[in-house]
Structure formats: C-alpha cells, structure tokens
Amino acid sequence: MNTINPERAVVDSIWRYPVKSMAGEELAACRLTERGLLGDRAYALVEKASNRAASVRTWAASLLNYHVRFVSEPQAGAPAPPVRITLPSGETLTSDQPDIDERLSALLGRTLTVMTTAPEGLKVEFPRGSLGGAHEKDTEMPLAGGALAGTFFDYGTVHLVASSTLEHLQSAYPQGRFDVRRFRPNLVIGLDDEPFIENSWKRRTVTLGDQVVLRVSIPCPRCVNTTLAQADLPLDAGILRTIAQLNRLDVGDFGKLPCVGVYADVVKAGVIRRDDIVRWS
C-alpha cells in the first residue's frame, strides 16, 4: 500500500459543473452531500425521444464552450436555483425562461429538454473509438451507475485527479496541454508523488479537511472528451492517445480502458475548501 504524506497532499482545486457537459466553474469552497458537490450536474439536456443525455462526446461538443453560473448559490435540501448560460456568441440565457428548451434545441439541432432529475433508464452514448480505440462499435451505457438514481453523473458521485498524474502526462507529451479542464474532475489533489498514484486509491478512504470523508470506488475511464477544443484549448487527439499508451486499466464490465483519476462515494458530508489537508486510510 502506498504511503502518502498528509503534509504535502492538499485540495489543490475544486470544480463544479452546474449543467452536465457544459463548462465548469472553479470554487474556493463547496458543500458535499450524499449526491456529491452541491449543485454539481444539477441540470442536463435530455433528448426524450432517445432517452439520452446531451454529451460532448457525440453531437454536442460545443457545449464545452457554454459557460454556466447559478443565479443564486444552491442550498442543501432545496430545488436547484436557475442557471445563467453564456453562449459562445456572448448571448445569455437562463434555465427558467419559458422558451429555454426551444432556444437550446435550435442551437444544438436536436429536440432537447432542460431537466433537473434524470428519467429512468437515461443513457449516454460512446461512439466507436471514443474510448481510446477500445470499442469498435457505438456503445450506450446507463448514466450514474455508481451514484444515486436521478443524478446526471457519468458514473460516480465525486471525481478526483492527482496533480502528479497531470504533470507526468504533460512531460510524456509536452506538445499537448493537459489542462485540468480537459478532465472535468471535482477535486484536484495536489501532491508530489508517482504518476497514476490514483490507481492505488481503489477502495481506500479519503479524508478531506476536518469534515468530508470519501471512499474510492473505481478508476475513471477517459474518452474523446479530453481531446476536444474548448476556450483556449485546441483539438488534440494526442491527449487520449498518450493516456491510452501509459495507463490502461481493467474497469470490470467496461473492459480495459485508458484511465486518469478515480470515482468516489461520499461517506461523510460536509464542507471542503481549497488547501484542505488530504489523508488516506
């Protein structure tokens, strides 16, 4: 078992994604509930006809350039407040305006509905080759297989990535940009350790600060999302290719996939803050 010095492992950054597949926001602090970071993936765009969530890995890559903020900060136990969506054009929409479904459907070329609870059986599509070449045909998977029913997570409730892993990937492919935005984690754990140290965290307990406790479940498979252009980051297939070369892991029923980071469940809720000390057991 790897020993990690808690004096040099800290919460480096905290990220929340108010609308699934849209750009995230970096926070100084956030409350964690059993459903993950308060307000994380509170909304999603759903194509009811196919019962699929809009995903950047298929036909809605432009969603990464839709920037979102809550109109007011979410409160535990209350419905999610509306979000303000800034489009790539600079135009702003709000999730509670009467024509929001029609406006977003027109922009994205699909009939979509803004939802705050995932319908039963909601799926996400992985096109052929989007999982680092691991699949030779299109694949559909149910959302939130490792989270509470009705949520919009791809799998688990909280997603962690180690800074040492991103630094190693950057060294291995220096012409690429392994920016944290490509990986869409909730927590970046800052530590000076071996690359892919997260592989050793499976089934371990992680304590963040003096309140929050997580239990790591499975590695996080990476897909074509990591390669897509967003903001100042260019399209770069070398990002996923590098991950696939360096860290393919057996993810059970999902097969052997390129992985960076891990998913975790919330054991004890509370508030996390940037620079909180991180401990493993």
Task: Describe the structure in your own words.
- The structure is a single chain.
- The protein has helices at 100-108, 163-172, 238-246; strands at 10-16, 25-27, 29-33, 36-37, 44-47, 52-53, 67-70, 83-86, 92-94, 113-115, 123-126, 139-142, 158-162, 187-190, 205-208, 212-221, 248-250, 256-268, 270-273, 278-280.
- The protein has 281 residues and is mostly beta strands.
- It has a single domain (6-280), classed as Beta Barrel (M1 Pyruvate Kinase, Domain 3).
- Strand 1 and strand 2 form a beta hairpin.
- The longest helix is centred in the middle third of the chain and has 10 residues, at 163-172.
Write the layout of secondary structure elements.
Elements: E1 10-16, E2 25-27, E3 29-33, E4 36-37, E5 44-47, E6 52-53, E7 67-70, E8 83-86, E9 92-94, H1 100-108, E10 113-115, E11 123-126, E12 139-142, E13 158-162, H2 163-172, E14 187-190, E15 205-208, E16 212-221, H3 238-246, E17 248-250, E18 256-268, E19 270-273, E20 278-280
Parallel strand pairs: 13-14
Antiparallel strand pairs: 1-2, 1-14, 3-4, 3-19, 5-6, 5-10, 7-8, 8-9, 11-12, 13-18, 15-16, 15-20, 16-18, 17-18
Biggest beta-sheet profile = 9 strands, mixed
Share of helix among residues? under 10%
Order of helix and strand elements from N to C terminus: EEEEEEEEEHEEEEHEEEHEEEE
The figure for the number of domains is 1
CATH architecture descriptor text = Beta Barrel
Q: What is the residue-mean pLDDT, rounded to a whole number?
A: 91
Number of helices, where a helix is a run of at least 4 consecutive DSSP H or I residues: 3
**Gross morphology:** globular
Measured between the Cα atoms of the first and last residue, the distance is 10 Å
Structural class: mainly beta
Fraction in beta strands: 25-35%
What gyration radius follows from the Cα positions, in whole Å? 18 Å
CATH class call: Mainly Beta
Q: How many DSSP-defined strands?
A: 20
Uncertain residue ranges: none
The CATH topology is M1 Pyruvate Kinase, Domain 3
CATH superfamily: PK beta-barrel domain-like
